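Sharing a chain and its predicted structure for anyone who wants a worked example. Both blocks are below, sequence first, tokens second.
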Amino acid sequence: MRRELSYGAAALRKRATVKLIAWSVPEILPTAVYGIAVARATDSFLGGRVWQGIAWLIGLVATAGAGAAGARQVYGRLGDLVEPLRDDLVRRVVRGALRTGDDGAVARLNRQVEIVRDTYAGLVLVLRSFAVTLFGVLTGLLSLAPLVAAFVVPPFLLGFALSLAVLGMAAHRVRASLTADEELASAAGMVFGGVRDITATGTEEYAEWLTSRPIEAHAAAERALAKVSALRTLCFAVGGWLPLLILLATGPWLVGRGVSTGTLLGGLTYVLIGLQPALNTVMNALGDSGLRYVITLGRILDTSTPTEVRRPVDELTGYQVRLHGLTFAYGPKAEPVLDNLELTIPEGEHLAVVGPSGIGKSTLAGLICGMLKPTAGRILLGGAPPGDVAVDRLAQTRVLIPQEAYVFGGTVRDNLTYLLPDATDHQVELAAKSVGAQQLIERIGGLDAEVAPGELSAGEKQLIALVRAYLSPAPLVVLDEATCFLDPEAERQAEDAFAQRNGTLVVIAHRISSALRARRILVLDGNQAKLGTHASLLRTSRMYRELHGSWTPGV
């Protein structure tokens, strides 16, 4: 059935196109004649043949009437060409919505489809008018004086070709502008939504840093668009004004070669009344409506596979963590839990921290995340110099999930998107699937279902907190026994998801299996700390060998 409908729509559009072309032929007649009529009438008047000149002008009016009749029929045929396109787009949008459950289908159906239909109709009329004008002017010029055509047509075609070349650049820059606008709105919305927290914690500098990149990108995109507008003006000068200047400059030479004054005036008429307005109209239409048509149509057609929106963490750099002489004690007379620790955690690292209970693993997590203040030493982020600014930025580019996961009353969506309020449903669903919380969310009732924290198990709360952290824009994730209530397979899936997520992962491990998945392992043993791989630590660390020897796979 679908094939028959598609075939019928194609046949209808084919017949409509043929009729549209057929009724465009009468419009060519006045376009081709008016330059000749002006030339002949001018020569007749200059030669004293007044009635002959008037006859030429009357003939021009008659051909204009025939062209008007053809134009009336063109508008009647336009609906037959445009409406099948609209129907096809509506079917595509509905099929895509039924397949993906996309809430944005309503916006595409109500607004974007109408934009495409109206823009398509306007483009058809403009391009048809341009083709009619060009064909008519070429016919008239060649009939009037081929020598004049040789001076007029090449620069006009050059300007038109340049405008088409600029069009590709303009489309790319319009898309870049739209993308920059969306990223700016996203970043600004995230900052505005947390303005109370930002003010309370004194993190205005971080909020400024978070929005500065999209602001600069948007400004650069708008400047690039402005340059395209300047290039379009240059193209119009070449195609619209250069033929006129050439014709005026070569006028005496043409008259010397036998071209009459009327013929020269007819050539100027073709340029001023025919070619120049046609070029201006088609350039504006393709540069504005044409780009809007292409981009909007592309968004409508691109509904089968949702595209993953890049999160801020995907592009953050400069979050390497460096610990210099880090020392921490829980009191002025207490023994240091960590003493003179030197550690560098490169960007993109997957580090597991292991050691016996009470050795200081959670303390280290609290220090890295800014929850605790070092007794001595420094914690630095990236290449920033020592000081509170570096520590403050570190505190704002990390997320810590402790053993006791926090879940609050509200919807599932509110709990999952707490650290990324503008997350799309597709992002949330992808995060839940990656971490392994998809079945839990479905059991609760979906993203809009209310969460009752008291009815969730400790492991279920951990899954919700893990999805929240996965969605976070923070590039540094610290899991402090955040999977201890999950079974080994669920823990493996969650840690693998974070390992594949862009950014740095630090796992405070309660199972040695977490260490086996890490790229590097830090073993805390009293005041000693050893860093290495699984193979190297089996050779050099007795503590690690003991932890590994006591581990039972699958437990």
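Comments welcome. Residues 50-100 form the longest helix (51 residues).
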